[in-house]
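subagent[fold] <- orchestrator: predict structure for attached chain, return C-alpha coordinates only, no commentary.
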Amino acid sequence: MENTATDPTHSGASLQLENNESENLLRIFFIACVAAIGGFLFGFDSGVINGTVDGLKGAFNSDSVVTGFNVASMLLGCAIGALIAGKSADLFGRKKVLLATAVLFIISAWGSGIANSSGEFIVYRLIGGLAVGAASILTPAYISEIAPARLRGMLTSIQQIAIILGLFCSFLSNYSLVQISGHSTEVLWSGFDTWRWMFWIELIPAIFFLLTLLFIPESPRYLAMKNRQQEGIKTLSQLFGTKNALSMWDEIKLSLGNNEKAKLTNLLQANTLKLKPVMYVAIGLAILQQLVGINVVFYYGAVLWQAVGFSESDALLINIISGVISLLACFITLSLIDKLGRKPFLLIGSIGMTLSLIGLVVSFSNGSLDPQGQLQLGDWGLIALVQANLYVFFFNLSWGPVMWVMLGEIFPNKIRGLGLGVAGLAQWLANFLVTMTFPILLTGGGLALAYSLYAFFAFVSVLFVIYLVKETKGTKLENV
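subagent[fold] -> orchestrator:
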Protein backbone atom coordinates (compact mmCIF):
# COMPACT_ATOMS: atom_id res chain seq x y z
CA MET A 1 0.00 0.00 0.00
CA GLU A 2 1.20 3.50 -0.75
CA ASN A 3 2.40 5.65 2.14
CA THR A 4 1.88 9.33 1.46
CA ALA A 5 3.03 10.70 4.80
CA THR A 6 6.48 12.26 4.58
CA ASP A 7 7.11 12.70 8.30
CA PRO A 8 7.74 9.47 10.24
CA THR A 9 6.75 11.18 13.44
CA HIS A 10 3.17 11.08 12.18
CA SER A 11 3.06 7.27 12.18
CA GLY A 12 0.42 6.96 14.91
CA ALA A 13 -3.07 5.81 14.03
CA SER A 14 -5.23 8.19 12.00
CA LEU A 15 -7.25 10.46 14.24
CA GLN A 16 -5.58 8.60 17.12
CA LEU A 17 -5.93 11.39 19.61
CA GLU A 18 -3.84 12.45 22.54
CA ASN A 19 -7.08 13.11 24.38
CA ASN A 20 -9.58 10.42 23.47
CA GLU A 21 -11.90 11.86 26.09
CA SER A 22 -12.24 14.92 23.84
CA GLU A 23 -13.95 12.88 21.14
CA ASN A 24 -17.63 13.61 20.67
CA LEU A 25 -18.48 9.96 20.08
CA LEU A 26 -22.22 10.53 20.16
CA ARG A 27 -21.99 13.07 17.32
CA ILE A 28 -19.56 10.90 15.35
CA PHE A 29 -21.93 7.94 15.68
CA PHE A 30 -24.91 10.07 14.65
CA ILE A 31 -23.08 11.31 11.55
CA ALA A 32 -22.03 7.76 10.62
CA CYS A 33 -25.62 6.53 10.98
CA VAL A 34 -27.01 9.36 8.84
CA ALA A 35 -24.46 8.67 6.10
CA ALA A 36 -25.27 4.96 6.36
CA ILE A 37 -28.91 5.63 5.43
CA GLY A 38 -27.43 5.79 1.94
CA GLY A 39 -26.39 2.18 2.50
CA PHE A 40 -29.90 1.35 3.73
CA LEU A 41 -31.35 2.73 0.49
CA PHE A 42 -28.64 0.89 -1.45
CA GLY A 43 -29.91 -2.34 0.14
CA PHE A 44 -33.61 -1.51 -0.13
CA ASP A 45 -33.38 -0.45 -3.77
CA SER A 46 -31.33 -3.55 -4.61
CA GLY A 47 -33.58 -5.96 -2.72
CA VAL A 48 -37.03 -4.60 -3.59
CA ILE A 49 -36.67 -5.98 -7.12
CA ASN A 50 -36.60 -9.46 -5.59
CA GLY A 51 -40.35 -9.55 -5.07
CA THR A 52 -41.35 -7.73 -8.25
CA VAL A 53 -39.99 -10.10 -10.91
CA ASP A 54 -43.35 -11.81 -11.55
CA GLY A 55 -45.08 -8.42 -11.69
CA LEU A 56 -42.56 -7.09 -14.20
CA LYS A 57 -42.97 -10.16 -16.40
CA GLY A 58 -46.75 -9.78 -16.43
CA ALA A 59 -46.87 -5.98 -16.76
CA PHE A 60 -44.31 -5.75 -19.56
CA ASN A 61 -44.83 -9.21 -21.12
CA SER A 62 -41.06 -9.86 -21.03
CA ASP A 63 -39.04 -13.05 -21.60
CA SER A 64 -36.12 -14.21 -19.42
CA VAL A 65 -33.54 -12.02 -21.19
CA VAL A 66 -35.63 -8.84 -20.98
CA THR A 67 -36.58 -9.64 -17.38
CA GLY A 68 -32.90 -10.10 -16.59
CA PHE A 69 -32.16 -6.68 -18.06
CA ASN A 70 -35.08 -5.10 -16.17
CA VAL A 71 -33.52 -6.41 -12.97
CA ALA A 72 -29.92 -5.69 -13.93
CA SER A 73 -30.47 -2.31 -15.63
CA MET A 74 -30.05 -0.49 -12.32
CA LEU A 75 -26.53 -1.88 -12.10
CA LEU A 76 -25.41 0.02 -15.21
CA GLY A 77 -26.52 3.19 -13.46
CA CYS A 78 -24.65 2.00 -10.38
CA ALA A 79 -21.44 1.64 -12.39
CA ILE A 80 -21.79 5.17 -13.77
CA GLY A 81 -22.79 6.57 -10.37
CA ALA A 82 -19.81 4.95 -8.67
CA LEU A 83 -17.41 6.18 -11.34
CA ILE A 84 -18.51 9.82 -11.20
CA ALA A 85 -19.26 9.97 -7.47
CA GLY A 86 -15.65 9.99 -6.33
CA LYS A 87 -14.59 12.78 -8.66
CA SER A 88 -17.79 14.72 -7.98
CA ALA A 89 -17.20 14.41 -4.24
CA ASP A 90 -13.71 15.84 -4.70
CA LEU A 91 -15.15 18.75 -6.71
CA PHE A 92 -18.35 19.59 -4.84
CA GLY A 93 -17.97 17.88 -1.47
CA ARG A 94 -19.11 14.62 0.06
CA LYS A 95 -22.23 16.12 1.62
CA LYS A 96 -23.55 17.79 -1.55
CA VAL A 97 -23.17 14.62 -3.59
CA LEU A 98 -24.94 12.60 -0.86
CA LEU A 99 -27.80 15.13 -0.98
CA ALA A 100 -28.01 14.64 -4.74
CA THR A 101 -28.19 10.86 -4.28
CA ALA A 102 -31.12 11.27 -1.89
CA VAL A 103 -33.04 13.21 -4.55
CA LEU A 104 -32.26 10.53 -7.15
CA PHE A 105 -33.52 7.80 -4.79
CA ILE A 106 -36.84 9.66 -4.47
CA ILE A 107 -37.23 10.06 -8.25
CA SER A 108 -36.39 6.41 -8.89
CA ALA A 109 -38.71 5.01 -6.22
CA TRP A 110 -41.67 6.97 -7.57
CA GLY A 111 -40.90 6.40 -11.23
CA SER A 112 -40.27 2.66 -10.97
CA GLY A 113 -43.75 2.25 -9.55
CA ILE A 114 -45.53 4.32 -12.21
CA ALA A 115 -43.68 2.82 -15.20
CA ASN A 116 -45.91 1.36 -17.92
CA SER A 117 -43.25 -0.14 -20.18
CA SER A 118 -39.86 -1.82 -19.90
CA GLY A 119 -38.19 1.24 -21.43
CA GLU A 120 -39.74 3.63 -18.93
CA PHE A 121 -38.99 1.27 -16.06
CA ILE A 122 -35.35 0.93 -17.11
CA VAL A 123 -34.91 4.73 -17.19
CA TYR A 124 -36.10 5.07 -13.59
CA ARG A 125 -34.02 2.09 -12.47
CA LEU A 126 -30.96 3.66 -14.11
CA ILE A 127 -31.64 6.84 -12.11
CA GLY A 128 -31.85 4.73 -8.97
CA GLY A 129 -28.63 3.03 -10.02
CA LEU A 130 -26.84 6.38 -10.16
CA ALA A 131 -27.91 6.95 -6.55
CA VAL A 132 -27.00 3.46 -5.37
CA GLY A 133 -23.59 3.59 -7.07
CA ALA A 134 -22.79 6.98 -5.58
CA ALA A 135 -23.99 5.99 -2.10
CA SER A 136 -22.03 2.72 -2.20
CA ILE A 137 -18.80 4.65 -2.71
CA LEU A 138 -19.37 7.81 -0.70
CA THR A 139 -20.89 6.35 2.46
CA PRO A 140 -17.83 4.27 3.51
CA ALA A 141 -15.45 6.99 2.31
CA TYR A 142 -17.24 9.71 4.26
CA ILE A 143 -17.50 7.60 7.42
CA SER A 144 -13.81 6.66 7.24
CA GLU A 145 -12.93 10.35 6.96
CA ILE A 146 -14.76 11.38 10.13
CA ALA A 147 -14.00 8.30 12.26
CA PRO A 148 -11.17 7.76 14.79
CA ALA A 149 -8.82 5.06 13.49
CA ARG A 150 -9.42 2.84 16.52
CA LEU A 151 -13.15 2.77 15.68
CA ARG A 152 -12.99 3.16 11.92
CA GLY A 153 -13.61 -0.49 11.09
CA MET A 154 -16.63 -0.66 13.38
CA LEU A 155 -18.15 2.62 12.17
CA THR A 156 -17.56 1.84 8.49
CA SER A 157 -19.12 -1.58 9.03
CA ILE A 158 -22.35 0.25 9.81
CA GLN A 159 -22.56 0.67 6.02
CA GLN A 160 -22.97 -3.09 5.51
CA ILE A 161 -25.41 -3.39 8.40
CA ALA A 162 -27.42 -0.59 6.81
CA ILE A 163 -27.31 -2.40 3.44
CA ILE A 164 -28.55 -5.62 5.05
CA LEU A 165 -31.21 -3.72 7.00
CA GLY A 166 -32.33 -2.18 3.73
CA LEU A 167 -32.47 -5.60 2.10
CA PHE A 168 -34.27 -7.06 5.11
CA CYS A 169 -36.82 -4.24 5.18
CA SER A 170 -37.44 -4.59 1.44
CA PHE A 171 -37.96 -8.35 1.87
CA LEU A 172 -40.24 -7.78 4.87
CA SER A 173 -42.15 -5.08 3.02
CA ASN A 174 -42.56 -7.27 -0.08
CA TYR A 175 -43.69 -10.22 2.03
CA SER A 176 -46.18 -8.12 4.01
CA LEU A 177 -47.70 -6.58 0.90
CA VAL A 178 -48.09 -9.99 -0.74
CA GLN A 179 -49.76 -11.29 2.43
CA ILE A 180 -52.32 -8.50 2.10
CA SER A 181 -53.00 -8.81 -1.65
CA GLY A 182 -52.30 -12.51 -2.26
CA HIS A 183 -49.71 -12.06 -5.03
CA SER A 184 -47.34 -9.44 -6.40
CA THR A 185 -49.46 -9.15 -9.56
CA GLU A 186 -52.75 -8.58 -7.68
CA VAL A 187 -54.24 -5.12 -7.13
CA LEU A 188 -53.43 -3.76 -3.67
CA TRP A 189 -54.49 -0.15 -2.99
CA SER A 190 -55.93 2.65 -5.15
CA GLY A 191 -56.18 0.35 -8.15
CA PHE A 192 -52.42 -0.28 -8.38
CA ASP A 193 -50.73 -3.69 -8.44
CA THR A 194 -48.79 -4.86 -5.39
CA TRP A 195 -45.42 -4.81 -7.15
CA ARG A 196 -45.78 -1.06 -7.79
CA TRP A 197 -46.36 -0.41 -4.08
CA MET A 198 -43.20 -2.38 -3.33
CA PHE A 199 -41.25 0.40 -5.04
CA TRP A 200 -43.27 3.27 -3.53
CA ILE A 201 -42.55 2.13 0.04
CA GLU A 202 -38.95 3.25 -0.60
CA LEU A 203 -40.09 6.88 -0.68
CA ILE A 204 -40.27 6.89 3.12
CA PRO A 205 -36.56 6.21 3.86
CA ALA A 206 -35.46 8.24 0.82
CA ILE A 207 -37.17 11.41 2.05
CA PHE A 208 -35.86 10.76 5.58
CA PHE A 209 -32.31 10.48 4.17
CA LEU A 210 -32.65 13.82 2.39
CA LEU A 211 -33.80 15.58 5.56
CA THR A 212 -31.21 14.12 7.94
CA LEU A 213 -28.30 14.89 5.59
CA LEU A 214 -28.95 18.58 6.29
CA PHE A 215 -27.67 18.04 9.85
CA ILE A 216 -24.23 16.54 9.16
CA PRO A 217 -20.97 18.43 8.41
CA GLU A 218 -18.74 18.29 5.38
CA SER A 219 -15.76 15.91 5.57
CA PRO A 220 -12.72 17.64 7.10
CA ARG A 221 -10.49 15.97 4.51
CA TYR A 222 -12.52 17.52 1.69
CA LEU A 223 -12.30 20.90 3.43
CA ALA A 224 -8.53 20.48 3.62
CA MET A 225 -8.42 19.74 -0.11
CA LYS A 226 -10.22 23.04 -0.71
CA ASN A 227 -8.10 24.99 1.82
CA ARG A 228 -11.17 25.87 3.88
CA GLN A 229 -9.15 25.97 7.10
CA GLN A 230 -11.56 27.76 9.41
CA GLU A 231 -14.46 25.48 8.53
CA GLY A 232 -12.26 22.37 8.66
CA ILE A 233 -10.79 23.12 12.09
CA LYS A 234 -14.28 23.93 13.38
CA THR A 235 -15.55 20.53 12.21
CA LEU A 236 -12.55 18.72 13.70
CA SER A 237 -13.06 20.60 16.98
CA GLN A 238 -16.71 19.52 17.11
CA LEU A 239 -15.77 15.89 16.49
CA PHE A 240 -12.44 15.46 18.29
CA GLY A 241 -12.01 18.42 20.62
CA THR A 242 -10.27 21.78 20.29
CA LYS A 243 -6.98 20.42 21.67
CA ASN A 244 -6.67 17.95 18.81
CA ALA A 245 -8.15 19.90 15.93
CA LEU A 246 -5.15 21.98 14.86
CA SER A 247 -2.61 19.13 14.90
CA MET A 248 -5.04 16.91 13.00
CA TRP A 249 -5.58 19.63 10.41
CA ASP A 250 -1.82 19.96 9.89
CA GLU A 251 -1.47 16.19 9.49
CA ILE A 252 -4.26 16.01 6.90
CA LYS A 253 -2.76 18.92 4.95
CA LEU A 254 0.65 17.22 5.02
CA SER A 255 -0.80 14.05 3.50
CA LEU A 256 -2.25 16.05 0.60
CA GLY A 257 1.22 17.21 -0.52
CA ASN A 258 1.11 20.14 -2.93
CA ASN A 259 -2.68 19.76 -3.15
CA GLU A 260 -2.78 19.65 -6.94
CA LYS A 261 -5.97 18.26 -8.44
CA ALA A 262 -6.08 14.48 -8.65
CA LYS A 263 -5.96 13.06 -12.18
CA LEU A 264 -6.43 9.56 -13.54
CA THR A 265 -2.68 9.42 -14.12
CA ASN A 266 -2.26 9.63 -10.33
CA LEU A 267 -3.56 6.05 -10.22
CA LEU A 268 -0.58 4.87 -12.30
CA GLN A 269 2.94 4.09 -11.19
CA ALA A 270 5.45 6.82 -12.07
CA ASN A 271 6.43 6.90 -15.75
CA THR A 272 4.54 3.68 -16.55
CA LEU A 273 1.08 2.63 -17.69
CA LYS A 274 0.79 0.17 -14.81
CA LEU A 275 -1.72 0.76 -12.03
CA LYS A 276 -0.42 1.39 -8.55
CA PRO A 277 -0.51 -1.75 -6.36
CA VAL A 278 -3.31 -0.29 -4.25
CA MET A 279 -5.52 -0.16 -7.36
CA TYR A 280 -5.02 -3.86 -8.13
CA VAL A 281 -6.01 -4.73 -4.57
CA ALA A 282 -9.02 -2.39 -4.64
CA ILE A 283 -10.29 -3.67 -8.01
CA GLY A 284 -9.71 -7.27 -6.93
CA LEU A 285 -11.70 -6.75 -3.73
CA ALA A 286 -14.50 -5.02 -5.62
CA ILE A 287 -14.82 -7.62 -8.40
CA LEU A 288 -14.49 -10.75 -6.28
CA GLN A 289 -17.18 -9.51 -3.90
CA GLN A 290 -19.59 -9.82 -6.81
CA LEU A 291 -18.22 -12.86 -8.68
CA VAL A 292 -18.99 -15.10 -5.70
CA GLY A 293 -22.64 -14.58 -6.69
CA ILE A 294 -24.08 -12.92 -3.61
CA ASN A 295 -26.46 -10.68 -5.51
CA VAL A 296 -28.09 -13.66 -7.17
CA VAL A 297 -29.41 -14.39 -3.68
CA PHE A 298 -30.35 -10.74 -3.11
CA TYR A 299 -32.00 -10.05 -6.48
CA TYR A 300 -33.30 -13.50 -7.41
CA GLY A 301 -33.89 -15.13 -4.04
CA ALA A 302 -37.61 -15.47 -4.61
CA VAL A 303 -37.04 -16.87 -8.12
CA LEU A 304 -34.39 -19.28 -6.81
CA TRP A 305 -36.56 -20.80 -4.09
CA GLN A 306 -39.62 -20.97 -6.32
CA ALA A 307 -37.42 -22.80 -8.86
CA VAL A 308 -36.82 -25.56 -6.31
CA GLY A 309 -40.45 -25.95 -5.32
CA PHE A 310 -41.29 -23.26 -2.73
CA SER A 311 -44.36 -21.04 -3.15
CA GLU A 312 -43.95 -17.29 -3.72
CA SER A 313 -45.00 -16.55 -0.14
CA ASP A 314 -42.58 -19.15 1.30
CA ALA A 315 -39.78 -17.86 -0.92
CA LEU A 316 -40.28 -14.30 0.33
CA LEU A 317 -40.31 -15.60 3.92
CA ILE A 318 -36.98 -17.39 3.29
CA ASN A 319 -35.57 -14.04 2.16
CA ILE A 320 -36.54 -12.56 5.54
CA ILE A 321 -34.78 -15.40 7.37
CA SER A 322 -31.67 -14.81 5.25
CA GLY A 323 -31.84 -11.13 6.17
CA VAL A 324 -31.82 -11.94 9.90
CA ILE A 325 -28.83 -14.25 9.43
CA SER A 326 -27.05 -11.52 7.45
CA LEU A 327 -27.59 -9.00 10.24
CA LEU A 328 -26.26 -11.42 12.85
CA ALA A 329 -23.09 -11.95 10.83
CA CYS A 330 -22.61 -8.20 10.32
CA PHE A 331 -22.96 -7.48 14.04
CA ILE A 332 -20.29 -10.09 14.81
CA THR A 333 -17.94 -8.37 12.36
CA LEU A 334 -18.78 -4.91 13.66
CA SER A 335 -17.91 -5.90 17.22
CA LEU A 336 -14.61 -7.63 16.40
CA ILE A 337 -13.14 -6.08 13.22
CA ASP A 338 -11.06 -3.47 15.05
CA LYS A 339 -9.70 -6.15 17.39
CA LEU A 340 -9.03 -9.02 14.98
CA GLY A 341 -8.40 -7.01 11.81
CA ARG A 342 -9.72 -7.09 8.26
CA LYS A 343 -7.74 -9.94 6.71
CA PRO A 344 -8.80 -12.72 9.13
CA PHE A 345 -12.47 -12.00 8.44
CA LEU A 346 -11.91 -12.03 4.67
CA LEU A 347 -10.07 -15.36 4.83
CA ILE A 348 -12.64 -17.07 7.07
CA GLY A 349 -15.43 -15.79 4.82
CA SER A 350 -13.76 -16.94 1.61
CA ILE A 351 -13.23 -20.47 2.92
CA GLY A 352 -16.77 -20.65 4.32
CA MET A 353 -18.32 -19.39 1.07
CA THR A 354 -16.33 -21.87 -1.00
CA LEU A 355 -17.48 -24.85 1.06
CA SER A 356 -21.14 -23.76 1.29
CA LEU A 357 -21.33 -23.04 -2.45
CA ILE A 358 -19.93 -26.50 -3.17
CA GLY A 359 -22.68 -27.85 -0.90
CA LEU A 360 -25.27 -25.98 -2.98
CA VAL A 361 -23.86 -27.36 -6.23
CA VAL A 362 -24.11 -30.92 -4.86
CA SER A 363 -27.70 -30.29 -3.73
CA PHE A 364 -28.79 -28.86 -7.05
CA SER A 365 -27.02 -31.66 -8.94
CA ASN A 366 -29.11 -34.24 -7.08
CA GLY A 367 -32.41 -32.64 -8.07
CA SER A 368 -34.78 -33.79 -10.83
CA LEU A 369 -37.06 -31.94 -13.23
CA ASP A 370 -40.84 -32.39 -12.99
CA PRO A 371 -43.07 -32.41 -16.11
CA GLN A 372 -43.34 -28.60 -15.93
CA GLY A 373 -39.55 -28.31 -16.04
CA GLN A 374 -39.27 -27.20 -12.42
CA LEU A 375 -36.36 -28.47 -10.32
CA GLN A 376 -37.44 -30.74 -7.47
CA LEU A 377 -34.86 -31.35 -4.73
CA GLY A 378 -36.81 -33.62 -2.42
CA ASP A 379 -34.71 -34.32 0.69
CA TRP A 380 -31.95 -32.16 -0.77
CA GLY A 381 -34.17 -29.08 -0.50
CA LEU A 382 -33.50 -28.63 3.22
CA ILE A 383 -29.76 -29.18 2.68
CA ALA A 384 -29.76 -26.54 -0.07
CA LEU A 385 -31.60 -24.11 2.20
CA VAL A 386 -29.06 -24.62 5.03
CA GLN A 387 -26.09 -24.29 2.67
CA ALA A 388 -27.53 -21.12 1.12
CA ASN A 389 -27.93 -19.52 4.52
CA LEU A 390 -24.44 -20.60 5.58
CA TYR A 391 -23.18 -18.92 2.41
CA VAL A 392 -25.09 -15.73 3.25
CA PHE A 393 -23.70 -15.85 6.80
CA PHE A 394 -20.07 -16.20 5.69
CA PHE A 395 -20.44 -13.46 3.08
CA ASN A 396 -21.87 -10.98 5.56
CA LEU A 397 -19.26 -11.96 8.13
CA SER A 398 -16.52 -11.03 5.69
CA TRP A 399 -16.66 -9.73 2.14
CA GLY A 400 -19.93 -7.88 2.70
CA PRO A 401 -18.74 -5.38 5.32
CA VAL A 402 -14.95 -5.74 5.08
CA MET A 403 -14.70 -4.91 1.38
CA TRP A 404 -16.40 -1.56 2.01
CA VAL A 405 -14.24 -0.91 5.06
CA MET A 406 -11.06 -1.51 3.10
CA LEU A 407 -12.11 0.50 0.07
CA GLY A 408 -12.84 3.41 2.38
CA GLU A 409 -9.40 3.31 3.98
CA ILE A 410 -6.72 1.89 1.64
CA PHE A 411 -6.42 4.91 -0.65
CA PRO A 412 -4.19 7.90 0.11
CA ASN A 413 -6.18 11.09 0.76
CA LYS A 414 -5.00 12.59 -2.52
CA ILE A 415 -6.50 9.90 -4.76
CA ARG A 416 -9.31 8.54 -2.56
CA GLY A 417 -12.10 9.96 -4.69
CA LEU A 418 -10.65 8.75 -7.99
CA GLY A 419 -9.59 5.38 -6.61
CA LEU A 420 -13.00 4.72 -5.14
CA GLY A 421 -14.62 5.70 -8.41
CA VAL A 422 -12.59 3.20 -10.44
CA ALA A 423 -13.04 0.43 -7.86
CA GLY A 424 -16.75 1.19 -7.70
CA LEU A 425 -17.05 1.03 -11.48
CA ALA A 426 -15.38 -2.39 -11.47
CA GLN A 427 -17.62 -3.60 -8.64
CA TRP A 428 -20.86 -2.61 -10.32
CA LEU A 429 -19.85 -3.90 -13.74
CA ALA A 430 -19.11 -7.27 -12.13
CA ASN A 431 -22.46 -7.06 -10.34
CA PHE A 432 -24.20 -6.37 -13.65
CA LEU A 433 -22.43 -9.31 -15.31
CA VAL A 434 -23.47 -11.76 -12.58
CA THR A 435 -27.04 -10.47 -12.36
CA MET A 436 -27.61 -10.35 -16.11
CA THR A 437 -26.23 -13.82 -16.74
CA PHE A 438 -28.04 -15.67 -13.94
CA PRO A 439 -31.44 -16.04 -15.75
CA ILE A 440 -29.57 -17.20 -18.84
CA LEU A 441 -27.52 -19.72 -16.85
CA LEU A 442 -30.67 -20.85 -15.05
CA THR A 443 -32.44 -21.49 -18.36
CA GLY A 444 -29.46 -22.97 -20.21
CA GLY A 445 -27.44 -24.93 -17.68
CA GLY A 446 -29.42 -24.95 -14.45
CA LEU A 447 -28.61 -23.91 -10.90
CA ALA A 448 -25.72 -26.37 -10.52
CA LEU A 449 -23.76 -24.75 -13.36
CA ALA A 450 -24.37 -21.22 -12.10
CA TYR A 451 -23.30 -22.02 -8.56
CA SER A 452 -20.25 -23.96 -9.76
CA LEU A 453 -18.97 -20.70 -11.25
CA TYR A 454 -19.61 -18.81 -8.02
CA ALA A 455 -17.83 -21.53 -6.03
CA PHE A 456 -14.80 -21.25 -8.32
CA PHE A 457 -14.51 -17.50 -7.72
CA ALA A 458 -14.97 -18.01 -3.98
CA PHE A 459 -11.91 -20.27 -4.08
CA VAL A 460 -10.03 -17.62 -6.07
CA SER A 461 -10.89 -15.15 -3.30
CA VAL A 462 -9.14 -17.41 -0.78
CA LEU A 463 -5.89 -17.14 -2.76
CA PHE A 464 -6.38 -13.40 -3.29
CA VAL A 465 -6.68 -12.76 0.45
CA ILE A 466 -3.69 -14.94 1.34
CA TYR A 467 -1.28 -13.44 -1.19
CA LEU A 468 -2.43 -9.88 -1.94
CA VAL A 469 -4.42 -8.37 0.93
CA LYS A 470 -2.50 -6.44 3.61
CA GLU A 471 -3.84 -5.68 7.07
CA THR A 472 -4.95 -2.06 7.68
CA LYS A 473 -6.32 -2.36 11.23
CA GLY A 474 -5.63 0.74 13.31
CA THR A 475 -3.49 2.45 10.67
CA LYS A 476 -4.17 6.11 10.05
CA LEU A 477 -5.60 7.11 6.68
CA GLU A 478 -2.63 9.41 6.15
CA ASN A 479 -0.30 6.41 6.47
CA VAL A 480 -2.09 3.40 4.96
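orchestrator: received. Logging for downstream: The mean pLDDT is 79. The beta strands are 187-189, 192-193, 368-369, 375-376.
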